[in-house]
From TrEMBL, chains A, B:
Organism (species): Tamilnaduibacter salinus
Family statement: Belongs to the homoserine dehydrogenase family.
Residues annotated as binding NADPH: K103
Biological process per Gene Ontology, one example term: methionine biosynthetic process
Catalytic activity: L-homoserine + NAD(+) = L-aspartate 4-semialdehyde + NADH + H(+)
Binding site for NADP(+): C9, G10, L11, G12, T13, V14, G15, G16
Name this protein carries in UniProt: Homoserine dehydrogenase
Amino acid sequence: MKEVNVGICGLGTVGGGTFNVLTRNAERIAGRAGCRIRIGRVATRTPRDDIDLGDTPFSTDIADVVNDPSIDIVVELIGGYDTAYELVMSAIRNGKHVVTANKALIAMYGNELFEAADRHGVNVAYEAGVAGGIPVIKAIREGLSANRIDWMAGIINGTGNYILTEMRAGRAFDEVLKEAQALGYAEADPTFDVEGTDAAHKLTIMASAGFGVPLQFEKAYTEGIADVTPYDIAHAEALGYRIKHLGIARRRDNGIELRVHPTLVPKSHLIAQVDGVLNAVLVDGDAVGQTMYYGPGAGDEATASAVIADIVDVARSVAAQSQQRVPYLGFEPDAMESLDVLPMEDIQSAYYLRIHALDRPGVLASVASILSEHGINIESIMQKESELEDGRIPVIILTHTVQERQINRAIEDLESLADVQGHVIRIRAENFS
Amino acid sequence: MKEVNVGICGLGTVGGGTFNVLTRNAERIAGRAGCRIRIGRVATRTPRDDIDLGDTPFSTDIADVVNDPSIDIVVELIGGYDTAYELVMSAIRNGKHVVTANKALIAMYGNELFEAADRHGVNVAYEAGVAGGIPVIKAIREGLSANRIDWMAGIINGTGNYILTEMRAGRAFDEVLKEAQALGYAEADPTFDVEGTDAAHKLTIMASAGFGVPLQFEKAYTEGIADVTPYDIAHAEALGYRIKHLGIARRRDNGIELRVHPTLVPKSHLIAQVDGVLNAVLVDGDAVGQTMYYGPGAGDEATASAVIADIVDVARSVAAQSQQRVPYLGFEPDAMESLDVLPMEDIQSAYYLRIHALDRPGVLASVASILSEHGINIESIMQKESELEDGRIPVIILTHTVQERQINRAIEDLESLADVQGHVIRIRAENFS
């Protein structure tokens, strides 16, 4: 049986998981790959004594992996931007295939890396970068290759989903975040997770794989969950909706929508039932309709599962000496689509609005008339008489789908009404229909 | 750009969908495959005037496709056993790759077909045979290739799931079945769907792909849903469970469990929320944990989506002239596992039991003592005093996981009690933990 040599760079959570699973399931994996996957070298600056490397060659300098002529596939699991970029670029220049779990690296520098990989005739695979162990990139690029992908919507950050799930019990964001940190679900600096940057990295990659457009992370709209309140969660529930932090990418005639924000989704839809730290990605294709992929979005061996699936795919093509790989972004470069990312004002969505109005006759009529002037139809409206406070009543409105521009203008007009106090709370909503 | 020629045999629901999607998305599909997929011939005994074949060569004899030297891939969409077997075998003998949606054919004759395909160096692909448009075979064979798959559980028959979903409203099986037939969800002869044969075909294929064992349809245990009553559905709900018609394949140390039957699943689990005609497959791997794949299990273009994904995969390897394909059953032949299908008596499951007991002192004690004698622990027990009728009371029990042999023996003893009347109703239960 042929042998393919991999070099693992980084021995943290995912690196350790990858080493352990590759070792434990070596026979099984060889039976699937049609070749033996040998760990030719492991490199890490911070060795671990809880992992038995046996007689695997070991270095504290990751350059040793890239310069080792016996290594066919470099597995980049060090994370971050700069060193990872240098590592991957050198591997490509040395004619080595690359497997990475680094979503930030691919989202920011993927276009350059894929271009270099094409020139050097090597693969760059990144399944583990999106939704951890769920093979969603494979589903999008291969399983649904018959389809025009129309949209994708994903719960692609476990920390955020855990926090929103716990907030349904009426608990405040700050309190749940602290708990998530104590449980190890959230980092000490939770910015990337709760502000949506991590989800935007993954969404950028999914959109490129599904739509066949270049990676455009800098154009993704990102809104976090820190402003979501138990009050709005409860009122969304009363309207039949659940608030999820979704990454949404949608193909439109004149461009693509690329946005991460808190979103109301119908409770009856399966994705609304995905709770806790789990991830799920919903994909709509013109032939298949809606399919959903669900599972762990993080964790040592779950992420390793995706890293190794990529290694097996690459190893199979190395063993076959075939260049007929699946294209990086789901499309051959000359078949890529020229769709730009639309500005947020041009996206289409339904909206949940919460207005604090003075309890005076005619307030509802003025609100309804402003929405109507802006061409906005109302799906439901709730006036919470029971919550009258300081002479103000919350008015909660769910609109039909309109352009974000229309809502922005309507909100300006609503906020200028003498009977409306403070800011209008706005959360986007999707019906997936 | 290279061209790969496919010949479509059969122009029914899936054949028509495949022709239409291949035509409509031709550019997109070529961009993904790295080669042009040309429909070189369509053959059907029953032409359709609602599909515009344009100048595609057309035959009423499917042998024309198999004998056409320009055809690289034969797409078998005629269904059934005998003619389909002859067609696929001749295609293989003529050195052509095969893509099929025919689960019955693969479940019954797959071992022979794969063996012949290996001898002739061609592929036989069958993604569309399991769970329609959901790319679950790709997930199992490729996306989870790092894992020892421990078990799979699927809602893999839409008709059955539709019926059980509607029965939750208290409606009887026969009534809902008639409605499903009127809506076109169920065939005039619904036997294959409601008795579980169709699900057993799909489960057999999944088990072989996931565990790397030969296809053993004849050893699958199959129990239909005709005996499920609204009464038991309601009581399962009261216990926190939903009844689903599941196909379950589980790896055990001494063999595999392969069984289709009504099953109680916890309402809190995502798979319990999959309603109507939709399909979902839950896969547990030792590295990744649980992942789930959800979507349409039938339909013209949904199934075509899976057929075409297979065509693209095969076309990519044809264009590369590579024999380094993904192994048929997820494993190279010499790495296959020698696990036998266990007899039903040896499977492990939890159980829902409904006993009709005379309302006499000591009945509960005798029941509990019989279960205890057989080593069966009770998770919960409900005695429905309010339903006392003719001096009989229903006693509902949910057990912990035991061997089916233990339950069979306990039921025999229970039925021989003077205070127990009629048969004990038994439905299996799974906690997926």
